[in-house]
């Protein structure tokens, strides 16, 4: 709730129809290693324009599973990340796409889409049927990616309908 408003929710009801995962040339996909804390925090700090401690957001949160934290790497350096999370109090059949970020020097290459799709594939491998995520109104590029992946808004609070209407207008003006 960075600007005082609640997070927006999006849901993908089925993971059976995922597109094939294709890693762009020059990049590789791997899971989290203990030495990755600094790289994860750097990607997230740049992507979200604020400090987020790995331990507070991921590492100290049950259930912590390193294989669910994914990275796209270029020349050995992590440049994008996403987490195939699971909310402890959530539906066990539904995964939670969490903390998707790409370094600006690598944006525009489809890496946000690729890393998010990799996380969805991981969820499906774990037996998840669908996925949820939370986002903010100003994350238009991320919302555009989520829509391409088949996520749809979930209206939880009274103001969500109007907020989504404004987001879709902004997305249309960016496309046109």
Task: Please describe what this structure looks like.
With 176 residues, the protein is of the alpha+beta class. The chain has a single domain (8-175), classed as Gcn5-related N-acetyltransferase (GNAT) (Aminopeptidase, 3-Layer(aba) Sandwich). It has five helices and seven strands. The chain has helices spanning 37-48, 54-59, 111-125, 140-148, 160-175; strands spanning 8-12, 27-31, 69-74, 77-85, 94-102, 130-135, 152-154. A hairpin with an 8-residue loop joins strand 4 and strand 5 (94-102).
Question: TL;DR?
Answer:
Residues 27-170 form the N-acetyltransferase domain. The protein is of the alpha+beta class and 176 residues long. The protein contains five helices and seven strands; from the N terminus they run ββααβββαβαβα.
Domain tally: 1
| SSE order, one letter for each helix or strand | EEHHEEEHEHEH
Report the CATH architecture: 3-Layer(aba) Sandwich
The number of distinct β-strands equals: 7
- Report the major sheet: 7 strands, mixed
Domain N-acetyltransferase: 27-170
InterPro entries: Acyl_CoA_acyltransferase, GNAT_dom
Protein name: N-acetyltransferase domain-containing protein
Layout: helices, strands, pairs:
Layout: E1 8-12, E2 27-31, H1 37-48, H2 54-59, E3 69-74, E4 77-85, E5 94-102, H3 111-125, E6 130-135, H4 140-148, E7 152-154, H5 160-175
Parallel strand pairs: 5-6
Antiparallel strand pairs: 1-6, 1-7, 2-3, 3-4, 4-5
